[in-house]
Write a structure and sequence with these properties.
The protein is built from twelve helices and eleven strands. The radius of gyration is 21 Å and the shape is elongated. The model has no long low-confidence stretch (mean pLDDT 95).
């Protein structure tokens, strides 16, 4: 693209032609210009600098090569947060925003202090949303992940949530192995978006398989290996009346619900996503 005399209005149009999506084109132009939202509309008549045009060209090339726009931008919105995202972590998705909604409702009436755990946190999307949206008094939020790279991203995002960061703890390890033994039997909420896609699932889009971390996507045994581990172990870590909520595959609801019942959970539910597909399981440890 040319520079020096070309306006952001023209660049937006050229970018749309290059990537084939007006919204994506605007996001790229906003990132390159440094002006977002209404601020971008205010600079449409301004001439772009050579540096900004070069940055825009680089981002366009990455999108055209097939890289997810979220990684190209380097950040993505999730509920009220703007999160750092890159290929070390999954891209936060709208379905998982609904998991947070269910999780908040599940602990709304729990007494303080409140202990919340986001297992396999990735970018920190679930746990940091809970840390910022729940009342801060008497709140402890644990973010765990087996991936050191993911925890680096989660820590960076924790630093960006302001006062809520004081209530967040980050721990490395596989599922409950990351947590101190002192938390066993005292957790009010376990929330997780674990890997639940079968390793041989041919329906996975190439853009997902090629760019997002397989460690956070795929699981053996028809995608259920990690979900079963969480179901089996969470009941001993939850406080009486505490809640487990996890994201699952759209065909896994009946199997996971049966496992929850067999393990001794109560109030077992399979809940739908925004498209009406089974997407979450929610259950409690008995109150007594």
């Amino acid at each position: 693209m040319s520079d020096g005399t070309i306006s952001w209005r023209q660049l937006w149009a050229e970018t749309e032609r290059a990537v084939g999506d007006r919204s994506v084109a605007r996001w790229l132009c906003e990132e390159a210009s440094g002006a977002e939202g209404g601020g971008f509309l205010g600079v449409l008549s301004d001439a772009a600098t050579e540096r900004a045009v070069h940055r825009l060209d680089t981002m366009i090339a990455r999108v055209r090569a097939g890289e997810p726009v979220q990684y190209v931008l380097g950040h993505w919105s999730f509920r009220h947060l703007d999160l750092l995202v890159d290929p070390r972590v999954l891209i936060p998705r709208p379905e998982t925003e609904l998991l947070v909604e269910y999780a908040i409702a599940a602990v709304a009436q729990r007494p303080r202090p409140l202990v919340v755990v986001d297992l396999g946190t990735g970018s920190g999307a679930i746990g940091l949303s809970l840390a910022t949206e729940l009342r801060h008094d008497g709140l402890a939020v644990w973010l765990t992940d087996v991936s050191p790279d993911a925890l680096d991203v989660a820590r960076a995002n924790t630093a960006g949530v302001g006062r809520a960061a004081a209530h967040v703890r980050v721990a490395a390890g596989s599922w409950f192995e990351a947590l101190p033994e002192s938390l066993r039997g005292s957790i009010d909420l376990v929330a997780s978006n674990p890997p639940y896609i079968d390793v041989d699932d041919e329906a996975v889009e190439p853009i997902v398989r090629n760019y997002e971390p397989g460690l956070a996507l795929f699981a053996p045994h028809e995608g259920l290996a990690h979900v079963r581990t969480i179901v089996a172990e969470a009941i001993d870590w939850l406080a009486p009346g505490g809640t487990l909520i996890a994201e699952i595959g759209a065909t896994q609801g009946a199997v996971v619900a049966a496992a929850l019942v067999a393990t001794g959970y109560v109030d077992v539910q399979v809940r739908a996503d925004l498209a009406g597909r089974d997407r979450f399981v929610q259950a409690k440890r008995a109150a007594t």
